[in-house]
Amino acid sequence: MAFPSPLVMLSVLAVAMASITFLATRDPAPTERRVDTATIASADQSPSPEPEATPTETPKPKPQVKRGEVYVEVYNNSGIKGLAAATATKATGVGWAVVGEDNWQGLIPTSTVYYPPRLERAGKQLALDLGITRTAPAVGVMKRDRLTVILTEDAPR
């Protein structure tokens, strides 16, 4: 019995990983909600009750993101030469610990900051710092100890 060559096995694995990454990075379908105008109209006509005095609780401050303690990798998924390097320089300039930059192969709908669950707040902060509007949980071969930025043609420059 002949075994498939390592190149064939590697090709099959690469196609499978690309498919998984594509499915995981698609934009979710928009959600819609029905608004009942009769309920809104009746709520507007009812007298509003007097507000009761309730003690106000001081909200606990959210812990600040320590940019220098979070690793970041930046990937270029566009035809724009030097985009990953320029974005990595921008991220480093505001304090992020950029540990790598390279090109990304795959279909990404728009520039995105991907984060592992424990770094969600940091991912959203990095997106704000870079002017990127989309964040998403890390998928596929992305490392789970860092943020992954994948840039497309719409990336802020």
UniProtKB/TrEMBL annotation:
Taxonomic superkingdom: Bacteria
Region (Disordered): 38-66
Keyword Cell membrane: no
Keywords: Signal
Residue stretches making up the LytR/CpsA/Psr regulator C-terminal domain: 70-154
Entry annotated with the keyword Cell inner membrane: no
Classification via Pfam families: LytR_C
Position of the signal peptide: 1-24
Protein name (database record): LytR/CpsA/Psr regulator C-terminal domain-containing protein
